[in-house]
Design goal:
Structural class: alpha/beta
Helix content: 25-40%
CATH topology of the largest domain: UDP-N-acetylmuramoyl-L-alanine:D-glutamate ligase
CATH class of the largest domain: Alpha Beta
Strand content: 15-25%
CATH superfamily of the largest domain: Mur-like, catalytic domain
Largest sheet: 11 strands, mixed
Number of strands: 18
Order of helices and strands: HEEHEEHEHEEEHEHEHHEHEEEEHHEEHE
Number of domains: 3
């Protein structure tokens, strides 16, 4: 398949030492991709990139002035970035077990839960998501995007491979799927959480939003996907989960989870406390330090994904219990106060009201306080 950008550099006799779409990162030998974004046009930074030593400039826009370095006009710069990154960084995802999580809600918590389970099972895990990017539990950096752009993504995957990670669990946003950020990544497991109205500023229609999510699962059924145990893990209680199940029927292995519909992994005897949640999965007792019924769904998704990847049940239970919390997701803040303080991000008001109704009878602390950050999911910078 190859990369037309790297081939163009080769034909021009340019030695490629790096790839970037940020002019301030350019070093001698770098390929500079001049992206035209919502807030800035990379084409205006081409002169700076050349001054810094770019060996090749790539843009979808025609060249406006002569350059002292080779220029390549792309017909699809998102595709060209993914192709170049995949080849330049040595196709790292091919050597890693890849687990992708998509859906409107729950991606971050599920990714943390899967990471905790696989760690309990003795694996070294790479993690990419909304909060941070991590290798073996060590934070590499805060996350500028839920799913990194293709150039930093394959750079991170190469680092994870170098550090002997066996599995990477990553949140895969609908933006990333539409913008081809995960092109060339063949997934072993894809998890679908749910679908709610969100990101319509980008997708325009709800059907477009769903179809973007479907692309992750089309990856599993693609005949070119070489992974041997490809599995779709789907929320059977979500209407669009049912639609996805029907789309994938008899095309790939499907494992389902839920609380209401018939599913492969069901939770019963759910008991909610102010510090933890207990439940049973197909008769096996489990406990998580995460709060709320929605986190039982998240635990089921992680359980099903771990099962699909051969993790023993006792390690799944151990890993679920080992996770103390997820940053910003109903995270308990303990500073010695005599009330419960939670940091909550990305939760609809109707969910918050339901939580309050269930928790107030359980209250033991003097006060129950919430710190809630409201997020406008249709804002231009939503991702």
């Amino acid at each position: 398949m190859g990369s037309s950008v790297l081939e163009q550099a080769r034909l021009a006799g340019a030695k490629v030492t790096g790839l970037t779409f940020r002019s301030q990162e350019v070093r001698p030998g770098f390929v500079f991709f001049a992206l035209k974004g919502a807030n800035a046009d990379g084409n205006t930074f081409i002169p700076e990139a050349v001054r810094r030593g770019a060996s090749l400039v790539v843009s979808e826009q025609p060249l406006q002035t002569s350059l002292s370095v080779p220029f390549y006009q792309s017909t699809d710069i998102d595709k060209d970035m993914a192709d170049a990154a995949y080849e330049f960084y040595g196709r790292p995802s091919d050597a890693l077990r890849m687990i992708g999580v998509t859906g409107t809600k729950g991606k971050t918590s599920i990714a943390y839960l899967v990471e905790s389970i696989l760690t309990a099972a003795g694996q070294k895990v790479g993690a990419l998501g909304t909060v941070s990017y991590r290798i073996g539990g060590r934070k590499i950096c805060d996350a500028p995007n839920t799913t990194p752009a293709a150039l930093p993504l394959f750079n991170l995957l190469a680092e994870m491979k170098k550090e002997n990670c066996q599995t990477v669990v990553m949140e895969v946003s609908s933006h990333a799927l539409e913008l081809q950020r995960v092109r060339h990544i063949w997934y072993d497991t894809a998890i679908f959480t749910n679908l709610q109205r969100d990101h319509l500023d980008f997708h325009q229609t709800f059907e477009n939003y769903f179809n973007a999510k479907v692309k992750l699962f089309n990856n599993l059924v693609d005949p070119q996907n070489p992974k041997p145990n490809r599995t779709a893990v789907i929320n059977a209680d979500d209407p669009y989960g049912q639609k996805l199940i029907n789309l994938l029927q008899d095309r790939v292995r499907v494992v389902t989870f839920g609380l209401e519909q018939k599913a492969d992994f069901c939770a019963t005897n759910i008991r909610e406390f102010l510090t933890h949640t207990k439940f049973e999965v197909n008769g096996r007792k489990a406990r998580i330090s995460l709060l709320g019924r929605h986190n039982v769904y998240n635990a089921l998704a992680a359980w099903a994904a771990a099962f699909a990847n051969g993790v023993p049940t006792e390690k799944i239970v151990q890993g679920l219990a080992a996770l103390p919390g997820v940053p910003g997701r109903m995270e308990r803040i303990n500073a010695g106060q005599d009330f419960l303080l939670l940091w909550i991000l990305h939760i609809p008001m109707n969910h918050l009201r339901a939580l309050l109704q269930r928790w107030l009878p359980l209250r033991k602390a003097r006060f129950l306080w919430f710190s809630v950050a409201a997020v406008n999911a249709t804002a231009p910078n939503a991702r």
